[in-house]
Design brief:
single chain; 174 residues; alpha/beta; Glutaredoxin; 2 domains; five-stranded mixed sheet; two-stranded antiparallel sheet; 7 strands; 19% strand; globular; disordered N terminus
Length: 174
């Protein structure tokens, strides 16, 4: 009976910790949401560009892979968003989580003539740091590091909604 009471007490403590916004050890996974503070993250583009999230410039961060069909489909949408919003100070950054040396990522980016920063993260650090559920995922992060918008899944075919979101927050970004 003592073992059962002890186990029950531990469950109550764990439940109370969760209800206060704390997570018990080993249960820390929680996908980022609008309003959250973006984690510290710096990436280096294939062309040598360095982008740091939350360091003054707003960032539309896309997590993708060349093997992901919906990721490849949305690259044209990201290119259009980059052309439209770069003059307003928004940086578009696509971080590939392909394994390997990055040659496949570079070939894809070159073939598509992508006008934004493309980075390669074969270790998947961006997925761990942003608690990504899968690919593609896209995050709009303000210059001060606040999560303004999160899209799990592709943005292809929803360019109007993405633009509306960017338009509604662009004043907060600058």
């Amino acid at each position: 009976m003592t073992g059962v009471r002890r186990a029950a007490a531990m469950l109550v403590v764990a439940a109370l910790a969760c209800s206060k916004g704390e997570t018990p050890r080993g249960a820390a996974f929680r996908p980022l949401q609008v309003g959250d503070r973006a984690p510290a993250y710096t990436t280096h583009g294939l062309n040598g560009d360095t982008v740091t999230v939350g360091a003054g410039a707003p960032v539309l961060l896309n997590v993708w892979a060349t093997w992901c069909t919906s990721c490849r489909e949305e690259m044209a949408d990201l290119a259009a968003l980059s052309r439209a919003y770069a003059p307003k100070g928004v940086k578009v950054v696509a971080v590939s989580v392909d394994v390997g040396d990055g040659s496949r990522v570079r070939r894809f980016a070159d073939a598509e003539q992508l006008p934004f920063v493309v980075a390669h993260d074969p270790g998947g650090e961006v997925q761990r740091v942003f608690q990504a559920v899968g690919v593609p995922e896209t995050y709009l992060i303000s210059g001060d590091g606040t999560m303004l918008w999160v899209q799990r899944g592709g943005i292809h075919g929803t360019a109007g909604a993405v633009r509306a979101t960017l338009d509604s927050v662009v004043g907060h970004l600058q």
